[in-house]
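Morning!

As promised:
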Amino acid sequence: MRKFILAASLAIAAAGFANSAQAQGEIKIGEINSYSLLPAFTEPYRKGWQLAVEEINAAGGINGKKLVVISKDDGGKPADAQTAANELVSSENVAMLTGTFLSNIGLAVSDFANQKKVFFLAAEPLTDAITWSKGNRYTFRLRPSNYMQAAMLVEAASKLPAKRWATVAPNYEYGQSAVSVFKKLMSEKRPDIQWVDEQWPPQGKIDAGPVVQALAAANPEAILNVTFGADLVKFVREGNTRGLFKGRDVVSFLTGEPEYLDPLKDETPVGWIVTGYPWYDIKTPDHDKFLKAYQAKFNDYPRLGSIVGYQTIKAAAAILTKANSTDPEKLIAATEGLSMPSPFGEITFRKIDHQSTLGAYVGKTALKDGKGVMVDIAYKKGSDFLPSDAEVEKLRPKD
Amino acid sequence: MSTPETLLSVEGLSKSYGGVHAVRNVSFSLKAGEILALIGPNGAGKSTCFDMLNGQNLPDSGRIHLLGRDTVGEKPRAIWRLGVGRTFQITATFPTMTVRENVQVALVSHQRQLFNFFASTPKFARDEAGQLLDLVGMGGYAERPCGELAYGDLKRLELAVALANEPKLLLMDEPTAGMAPRERIDLMRLTARIAREKSIGVLFTEHDMDVVFEHADRILVLNRGSLIAEGSPEQVRANPQVRAVYLGEGLVYDARHRDGAHA
Amino acid sequence: MAFYVVQFLTGLASAASLFLMASGLSIIFGVTRIVNFAHGAFYMIGAYVAFTLTERFSGALGFWGGIVAAALVVALLGVLVEMVLLRRIYHSPELFQLLATFGLTLMVQDLVVLIWGPDDLVGRRAPGFKGAVDFFGQAIPSYDLFLIVLSPVVLGILYLLFQRTRWGILVRAATQDRDMVAALGVNQKWLFTSVFAVGVFLAALGGALQIPRDAVHHAMDLRIIVEVFVVVVIGGLGSIIGAFVAAVLVSELNAFGILIFPKISIILVFLVMAVVLIVRPWGLFGKPEAPARRSPGLTVNPWRPLTSGERLASLAALAIAALLPFFVGNYALSVGSEIAIFVIFAVSLHFLMSVGGLASFGHAAYFGLGAYGVAFLAKMAGLPMIVSLSLGPLLGCLGAAVFGFFCVQLSGVYFAMLTLAFAQIVWSIAFQWVAVTGGDNGILGVWPDKWAASPSSFYWLSLGIAALAVVILRIIVFSPFGYALRATRDSMLRSEAIGINAKRMQWTAFVIAGTVAGVAGALFAFLKGSVFPDNMGIPLSVDALVMVLLGGVETVSGAVIGAIVFKAANIWLVSQTDWSKLVLGAFIVLIVVAFPKGIVGTLEALISRRKSASAKPLVTRIETAE
């Protein structure tokens, strides 16, 4: 019976051997994301990085070498992400790891990178822990963190007259830390406000009717929303029908991202203060160039994931080019303080906490031709919404 | 030789379900080496009575003394520990084991080795198991999977299992149900022989009057929950009440109808 | 006051979709005894098809016609599935149908993305039910009112169907006694098919009716399936009224519970189920199950220890496996370690299922507890690896001792569901108690000490422990304890009649299985260097079940092969394709059809048949029995 072990192992080994030879003149990047669990977000992301790979190789690759991205699905499970990371590092001999969407997967891969001394550029996970409390020298992060998004929203929210606030967030780390950072920053700016209710529906399983009712019963003047995806759809639909949003301000994480806003179609609530990606209204040369190339290649408009995917690989290429080596220590040295262009303008990877200064757009939701859009948009630079260096030093363990 | 000890004594046993008296004030006793039949038409309360003796069912009132202990409220497994073997109307055996292993499990339990995690059961008390199987004439089938035995063989296996704890009393619920006539007589003769040799008391219920009248030392007749007659086969046969109960069913035992009569 | 009335009505509306799903599941289970894991998949397809139809056909007729048409289309699909797939496996061991429907579920999750694309779809509102009704200043969506009326109507229709039609009477009879209906000369095949169709119709209708409230997406099924199972069990299997009451109970408790404990939703249904099952072991409206007849596939070939030749072969295979580090790379070794760990996990569940006859749906709880035990000891107490590895599994042991005590009081599906409830409770503690467990971000940095850090040493360690676990469990299987435990599975009546205290045997078996699972979890924590609530989640419990069933639940060593095949296929597929669920699901369905007794079980049957066809039928048959 154990012959099966042998057969299975040999088959795996053979597959490993076949791939392990690093072709000459190639640099490999290992990329991991939740393609099968979250296709709505990872498909545009994949298109983004595919565009970047094409552009980089068309421009001569990395110091003359061709860039190859080997992409793996993690099925939404931290343990599977580690298996994939291990395969990429051990069998494929990739120069660095990139990607991940969910916070716990980002952290799992980050811990793996720290243990195995591999360079990891986290693309999408939002958790503050990845750069602060559980930060490590091998891990960098591209997307603006939970803290930064909260700070951007607080800037606008603190100007609202509302004093009674309620919150609704998915019941897991992302929702919990989004609410707690928002509350903390908000209370600092506005000591006069009161938190009158909080609702914690399980992620992906909101029973929206009772939640909306419960929020309405607390009679808040403003609501902070952190739900997204299908939960957001249900919440908005119930809220609209039951009049929850009438006469109330709503501040909402990520809702302006096309991934979350577009499904709402003509039911998009109007006047919410959101972070997001109004690709139709960004009129900068950097973004125009990206938008044209993206639309030409895919005949589709970009989502925020497209930007993140695109910029992740662009950043990886910039790092590899500058380091001119695949040695992790040299990659770290090259990345710390490295500045580069992005569709949102120039960004820098901070030495102090390995966070990039990529920002986000803040605006208000509106309805246009039966579709949800962001209006009154303003780009918020990431560097303006991070705590002071002294505070960051305290948050992050020493390397 | 002194008088045989009383193994079982039942006094005023009653049980009713939602106002229907299944068993009403039944009293009897059973001595070592005695074979006692409990008969009666369908629904007379035989099974209920049996289940109460066995601990599967709790009486509303009455006393059951098994081997000198009051066993009302005891679980079947506790009653078994006192030395009571049991066979079922529909055989209950372990189909994923061999014939011998079926007996071995009972021996494991009898020797209080249930929480032994290391010994090998197939080697456990092999000789004893073999002897028990020989006793019931199953010695040649020891290695056979229990799941492929013929029904009559299963009944004999059950008897071997029931004998594994060296019981003083056997409770047999319709021991020959579902068997061919020839096999019935063989099985009951075997049981009777073993009972007499080992001085085991046997209480059995049975529909087959041939079996009952050939082997029982005494017969109890139940009707609608009450004991209507008790005595030797001759006494019971002569009892007008019993004849009345059984008349419609045409089951009255008559020696002239029996083939292979002895004496 | 008006608020509480409205909150109550809102709860009733939430209960409607749960009830539609649960009633269908309950009917299917009652008659066919199939634990239809694919019920959620049919719900989801119902929603997708309804989305397409209602977008295509405008107007009120287009909408309502589309909803009903979608449910009918999906019911036809259900008939197809029943006839092509399930009919072939009704006589397979219990729960094997669960495996088939699980495979289908995996396939459907990928198929809907292939067909309808990855984006969340938001359908249109129901014509005539777009707004809200004012109730003393509180708004009630009119669609909610529609749903509130709908579920009693459906309940009434089902009631009439079951009480007043010949079909309904047959279904009720079959629910009580399957064999009797067959004996009455009823065409059982078509009865099963029609029941399955009705159940699927209800599921699809439930999905289709979500269009005006929800987004249609590819994870809808998982979102609801477990909760529906729970509702069915709370209500009592096979009881439609029970499903209705349970759906209302759960929804109302949630609606009012969140007013006091906003974080209660995540665990509420499982708490309710645990309490109900402990107090009423057959659910609110269920009846005690008739003593199970021998499951049809139960083997007649007794288990036997390995012959000396087979022992040598196993040792040789183990030796070859131990030589792998000299031939293969680090990744292959890590995969090998992972497979070895899952062999341990699978054999622990197999022990409980095959020997004890107790199919646990929450076995991952003890795997996860072992993993967290290690994480606490190694990370927080800073103990060396060898100590953590030895003591960590004790947390699994402890959990199994406490939960097992309650679980073994039940049997069959109720046992399975109580294990599931406890597993979810443990999971939610790990998920919610952020201060201690790190919540969903887990505990990081649980890496092995130097001596075991290299992939080859860790592989040897895992392989060694796996071999040890397999050997120990095999010894126990053939020990007096193992036989006595198997006796309780084979015949509860007989084992009680020979002095065996079944509950104590089962409880002990539960603790053994939990501890061994804890060992697997402990190793897993070190392999991955981290623990997450995932390590005790439902998907992992299901994986373990799949491994056992795949290998063959009626064999002694099937789980070893099942774990190797499933885990290797899983890792390879996830690495090779983003459509791993589609391929894996198809693979499982194929195996279910091709190997109706599991891989090892079918091989054994084949060998046994071939040998017994040749000379000396009786003796040979016994020798090849295992």
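Residues 352 and 358 of chain C are 6 Å apart (CA to CA).

Hope this helps with the figure draft.
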